[in-house]
């Protein structure tokens, strides 16, 4: 039984905490850390976590953890990763690993120094989603020929737009590309084994023009080219009317794949006065529920059987670099080389 | 230019009249007959029909027609067909040809006697719908193997239920099987080249229990067996929540076909707060718009090129026989042989 | 940690065994029983089961189990259930509970006598499938009005037809209704809270006429009426060309639901030379993977928190009664009251 | 009865000729012109055209036409339009109106000078397609809020790629944007009432690298911005594996529309060993069959009732300007202002 700890109990953290507590055989969630007392109360009551901490260092020093999941804010994440890794606690960290390339490079060097004693994995859960895995296997089996074009949408539901507008007035999301497209960027690198070579980004606010004032975007698009001329189109957004739209299309010379053109919530079709419809996944915890379990299962497997993790710090660094180049392109309004 | 006349200018008749006036090359709609003055006014104003009649015999005697389309009520239809046919005017008649088997047999004998001088076709438009034609060609090319099972839904939209309830208080629809399933019965005979051998029908009223009192059904089902043991399931109804549901499924030993499981109105998919949806055809004139044109085009082709029509009076007779056996089964609540 | 045992390690049993070993927190699969040595070897190697038995009584007597999952053949199932229940081991048994109504009634009386000390649940996993649960909640919230009609298909993939034909030459499946429709019968009772009142069953063999000789069916249909006149149509089959087709349609006075009209394997749509397609679930372990986990989780919850199980022996008895009435109707070729 | 003539009897021209001969009431196709004798033979035999010409001027001078449809090659089109228009024959011309902006501007001035006596319409048939018309009405009714983003694919089927490669070795298509995206550019202008303000185009050849040598593209993409910041993404291609993919997505602040995400050929769904699939439209004459009829019907209506045509020469000019800017961007590999 591996002893697990968690830090950060917001929506993302609670998703992981719940999985660690109930959905992963061979793991026991023994410790939780948060700066919010009510979050710790919930962890105790609902998840039966025994050791509660308000200091991350305290948890690492005292809880005798085999591994820790870091889902605290991106501002404190780099220091936490470094502390856990240096102290020999296997570390799973949410993306992004930091807000600047320099910060991530520093984290990366710490991870490198300790790679013999501590495993590290970053939370690009799409690589563990059965739909994306299926698509990758179809591509690798040559069934769609050579990949020529990829379109990736990552668009949060409109139901969260109000909350985002409030958040954006006081906080920095890192920009829509670093906050959202980063998953698409990683997925595309993983699906194609190619790197981004140039981007042109553009964005605008229609539903909430006040986002202009805080430098945030409701919708941002990118035209990108990969190093072998695969053409890429990204749309990141925060105002999807019907649910959580994470869609990826891959065109090949012999066939195309569309992953989740409709983010179907289940297998039920409804016939009613609106026509004939499918209900949709409303959020990332719903859409990627299984992938969040699978990424931790895979990490646990790497710990137990001493394997390399499937998403490493280098992947996190590259995805951040590309997303920040998109931001640069947006600001300069020109094509940027990577 | 063939000279065409029409009798009956209700919804069905107006659909034909409009096609005769505007959508069929080589035909001119020269005469219209109705007992309702306002319908004749519309025909004159909107369809530019020159000769207007309130008596069918008058029209046949005086309008010098090449052919007539009979869309008047089923009660007067048999006499009209006989009169037109005897007078050498090629005749296209809506289904059913009459309300009893005897009545239709009589009409049939008149049609037979005059078959050398007058063409006759009955309005089973599904045989001219591109989706049904496509399905038949797939079956005949052996692509789904041997047909084992057919399911056919013919369900009118809920938007017409109020109107039907009012109608049913004063009029006789002929029963749900004769009124609605008759199209499915004909389509199944045409798709399989097999005849019905036994049926068990059942029905009930849930949305409008008052239909019990007038002996009508909101929903009626039939389990039927064809003469080579193909299994058949029919659902006829008057309360479809989303539109006009005419759906036919054909299972074969190697593949299945579903014709219009969603009665898609067009190629547009809508993503909105209800989820992701297709809007639906709202009525038979919308769903079968093209088939109504094609059946008349085919009839005109038979007249001009002296061919046999593709749906004859015998087909009308058999479909009525089967639908009346369904009614008998419903009333006796037992399995009825045909 | 609950100590679990399993008997029967065929496809169904191995599905349960795997879940008990890896997918259910708070449970340890400690014992397995089979009459096939190679199955026990697999359980040891792949599932790390420590105690292996060839006698069921031995396992119950010695393995100190909290609960047992019975997935052995229907012929030995009744005796096993009785032995486990009498010995105070909570029991989860696959359906059907026996091959005759009398046999199941006997089992039922033993379960009743011991209900204070042992929990019992039967394996109608559809009640734990998220799609069926969603449909039930939509119905119970009144969103589709009153239920008027249900259509349920349970059709095994054609890929298994050869195997079935071989099996049928030497063994008795119990008939297609008892073997397959039983799940649909239970699901319909559960969705509607109504009982079956009459049935007419019919079946035929087209792909494999040799099944006639052994009294088995490739495709069997049923027209049934529930006690409040809800109309029901069942299709059971063994020759689905595209995958495992478990589809249920519920028509209400205000809306309809279709559960899995396409048994979509995942969220990927493929565009290739065949057109645009969805790949399909190929088998029951794939389609109901999550439901198989959830039904055991629910059973475990009932054990730990002393709750009533969600599917009891009475449900198993009724479903068997109805399915055997379908068989009787098929044999007599008449409508049978229940 | 309007007297119609046609010039050019290739695939596009024959589509129009057939419609003029058989599918449009009130029109008679009296004359056809082609430099290929065999095409004229076909027109005579199959379409019963009486007057056949090898010289366009001859036809205009002698056939006493009310209107002419110009479907001859883009190289000769400008001169033909000018000749017909100057001679008072109402003119319907295929797009593009010419291969350079200057050429089209010259044609435009001739059309302007004669606008009181001759009607002119250009063949942007999407404006007459029921799906596009439906989408426009949904947008204009405010049902999807403000338009924020449009994605448009215009991708020819792979079945035509060989033919195109041969063609491209000897001929100039005008480039993929002028040849194909021009329809999307016009549709977007029409749907939004906005103009293009900047573009970045990129393209590559994967299936047929030899297209590099003749300066043609298998797939070309464009990122464009409209004058109010609506974001636009275009994909033009010649290698669609499943059929003719003309798809347009419109995202608004309250809803999205997807026109033909699957270019469904009909309403039939096929269940077979490939999964569950829809067959697709294989070509533009199939996909836009009705739109080709409707655009001519609309043109005829403008002639008869002296109305302004719905697509004028100015629209043709603008669409060409934008598509040529895409070409310029592709060649310079930079963002180009319009």
Automatic annotation (TrEMBL), chains A, B, C, D:
Keywords: Oxidoreductase. Belongs to the Gfo/Idh/MocA family. InterPro entries: Gfo/Idh/MocA-like_OxRdtase_N (IPR000683), GFO_IDH_MocA-like_dom (IPR055170), NAD(P)-bd_dom_sf (IPR036291). It holds the Pfam family GFO_IDH_MocA_C3. Residues 133-258 form the GFO/IDH/MocA-like oxidoreductase domain. Residues 2-122 form the Gfo/Idh/MocA-like oxidoreductase N-terminal domain. Coiled coil: none annotated. PANTHER family: BINDING ROSSMANN FOLD OXIDOREDUCTASE, PUTATIVE (AFU_ORTHOLOGUE AFUA_2G10240)-RELATED, NAD(P)-BINDING ROSSMANN-FOLD SUPERFAMILY PROTEIN-RELATED. This is Gfo/Idh/MocA family oxidoreductase. The lineage of its organism: Bacteria, Bacillati, Bacillota, Bacilli, Bacillales. It comes from Gemelliphila palaticanis. Transmembrane segments: none annotated.
């Amino acid at each position: 039984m591996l002893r697990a700890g968690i830090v950060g109990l917001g929506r993302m953290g609670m998703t992981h905490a719940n999985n660690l507590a109930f959905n992963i055989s061979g793991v026991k969630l023994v410790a939780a850390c948060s700066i919010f007392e009510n979050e710790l109360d919930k962890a105790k009551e609902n998840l039966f976590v025994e050791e509660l901490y308000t200091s991350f260092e305290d948890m690492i020093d005292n809880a005798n953890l085999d591994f820790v999941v870091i889902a605290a804010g991106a501002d404190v994440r780099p220091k936490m990763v470094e502390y856990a890794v240096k102290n020999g606690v296997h570390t799973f960290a949410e993306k992004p690993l930091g807000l600047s390339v320099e910060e991530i490079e520093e984290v990366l060097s710490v991870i490198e120094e300790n790679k013999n004693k501590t495993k590290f994995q970053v939370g690009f859960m799409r690589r563990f989603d059965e739909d994306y895995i299926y698509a990758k296997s179809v591509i690798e089996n040559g069934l769609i020929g050579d990949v020529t074009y990829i379109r990736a949408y990552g668009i949060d539901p409109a139901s969260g737009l109000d909350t985002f507008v409030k958040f954006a007035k006081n906080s920095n999301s890192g920009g829509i590309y670093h906050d959202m497209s980063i998953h698409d960027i990683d997925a595309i690198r993983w699906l194609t084994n190619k790197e981004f070579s140039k981007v042109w980004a553009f964005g605008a606010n229609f539903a909430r023009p006040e986002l202009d004032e805080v430098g945030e975007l409701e919708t941002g698009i990118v035209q990108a080219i990969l190093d072998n001329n695969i053409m890429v189109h990204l749309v990141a957004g925060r105002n999807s009317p019907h649910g959580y739209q994470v869609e990826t299309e891959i065109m090949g010379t012999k066939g195309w794949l569309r992953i989740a053109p409709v983010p179907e919530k289940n297998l039920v079709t409804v016939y009613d006065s609106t026509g004939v419809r499918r209900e949709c996944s409303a959020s990332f915890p719903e859409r990627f529920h299984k992938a969040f379990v699978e990424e931790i299962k895979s990490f646990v497997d790497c710990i137990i059987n001493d394997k390399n993790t499937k998403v490493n710090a280098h992947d996190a660094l590259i995805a951040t670099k590309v997303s920040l180049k998109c931001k640069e392109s947006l600001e300069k309004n020109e094509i940027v080389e990577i």
